[in-house]
Design a protein that fits this description.
This protein is mainly α and 124 residues long. The protein is 52% helix and 5% strand. The protein has three helices and two strands; from the N terminus they run αββαα. The chain has helices at residues 3-22, 48-85, 100-105, and strands at 25-27, 35-37. Strand 1 and strand 2 (35-37) form a beta hairpin. The chain is elongated. The mean pLDDT is 89.
Amino acid sequence: MDTEALKQKLEAEKAKLTAELSSFATPDKNEPGDWDVKREENPGGSDVSDEVANELEGLVERKATELPLEKQLQKVNLALEKMTTGKYGICEISGEPIEADRLEANPSARTCKHHMEEEDGLPL
């Protein structure tokens, strides 16, 4: 398994996710790995209740986008951390090596193919 190539894929994905999140959210200074959606400034000229409703709607939409991106970024960061500690490529459930083709397809995979259905339930 070419871990250097996988590391490069993870670093590229991290940069992409960070850039995407930065376009509408900021890192939470109190909780590492957490992002907070930015409030949008609404131009004047509309009814206050309309402004509040529009801001709330936008906030809900940005939050729905932010959560999966944040979770994926956390998985990427965890994979990069595991590379430095020598724990990369080991299934978090069985302790067995994760198949090379699975890591090629998903370098941030945390489980082997046999346990991939259970991966989303693992705490980060």
